[in-house]
Amino acid sequence: MSRNVPDWPPVDVEPVPVHPKAPQAGTKLGPHYSECFGCGDEVPTGLRLQSTMGDEHTVHSQFTVTAAHQGAPGLAHGGLLAAAFDEALGATVGYQLRKPAVTGRLETDFLRPVPVGSTLFIVGKLDGMAGRKVYVSANGHLDAEDGPIALRARALFVIVAVEHFTTHGDKDAIAKLSASSQKRPDLNP
Ligand SMILES: CCCCC/C=C\C/C=C\C/C=C\C/C=C\CCCC(=O)SCCNC(=O)CCNC(=O)[C@H](O)C(C)(C)COP(=O)(O)OP(=O)(O)OC[C@H]1O[C@@H](n2cnc3c(N)ncnc32)[C@H](O)[C@@H]1OP(=O)(O)O
Which EC number(s) are documented for this chain (predicted)? Predict the structure, then answer.
């Protein structure tokens, strides 16, 4: 059965200007926020995604599926896999642009079941920009960097002002994040 994949990016785009202080290829990217469900190390049932800068506008992330992530018995929940991609795509945008951005749209193709115990190797790639809109996509390979593709995702991130978080988020948590990010050159603009 054929699957129609829409044109991507859906609008004319410019190349994304990667920040001159973006981490070098091979740099391991720690959690951007310790309480983040996607990458935080203080969330016991979180996804604990681990990301590394890659070459050519890519970020490589790994996510191991545990029993806490099930939908059907023994298989990862689809929405949770989409969350893993949101995180991987967000890291691809955030660490390369070093500007705050939020997911505006995320679409996911589920190509193969992902069993508990397996690891997804996700490669996120910047595809282009149009004003504040950043287009980014990713493939998720099952159990090896060159394993079969189990998921594909495409997303639009929208660059926002810091006020997006201070207005709508938790001010105490933002203060904590801000204090901890002082020690992280990769998180400072
Ligand atoms: C302080 C310095 C920080 C430095 C940062 C450095 C390092 C960071 C490092 C690492 C970060 C690492 C990892 C990140 C991890 C995780 C990622 C998770 C991300 C999330 O989990 S984040 C939560 C979910 N996310 C939301 O909670 C967003 C809710 N939402 C809104 O807050 C607004 O909705 C918003 C802001 C999206 C837009 O609002 P707005 O008022 O600012 O702008 P507007 O509506 O005009 O949209 C502008 C243009 O985007 C187009 N557009 C918008 N949405 C569209 C859609 N759905 N489809 C097609 N086009 C769309 C419009 O059509 C227009 O296009 P045009 O310009 O062509 O007219």
Answer: 3.1.2.2
